[in-house]
Amino acid sequence: MLRADDDKSLEIAVFGDTEAGKTSFVTRYCKNIFREETETTMGIALHLRDICRENFKCRLKIWDVTGLERFFHLGVTSAT
Question: Is residue 51 over pLDDT 80?
Answer without folding.
Answer: yes
